[in-house]
# Entry
Amino acid sequence: MEEYSKEVIEHFLNPRNVGEIKDADGVGEVGNPVCGDIMRMYIKVKKDIITDVKFLTFGCGAAVATSSMVTEMIKGKSLEKAEEITNINVAEALGGLPPIKMHCSNLAQQCVKAAILDYRKKHEK
Ligand code: FES
# Structure
């Protein structure tokens, strides 16, 4: 476990915002082509601000930690700002990821984008 930062291990052991939102305004689901892991993310949006977010993942420890971190990063942010977050930002916020695990951080960031896209499709003309 030495190659993982304290933050990654902490978020893996105590992931934030795990679960579903039944009346979500947007839902994103993505699969990681590298490993086949999948993730689903639910968002609530009010006046262009993400007021709540939850995720479920069938993925590795790095996927759990990055999704946990990304949910903390986007909560309270505007849709636009949330879309600007890159997987590198998420990995940095976690104190880095082993290079072999960087692909796992794509899942979290793409899932945010997919949830926002779904929200836009349903609520914007
Ligand atoms: Fe699949 Fe990390 S190994 S997301």
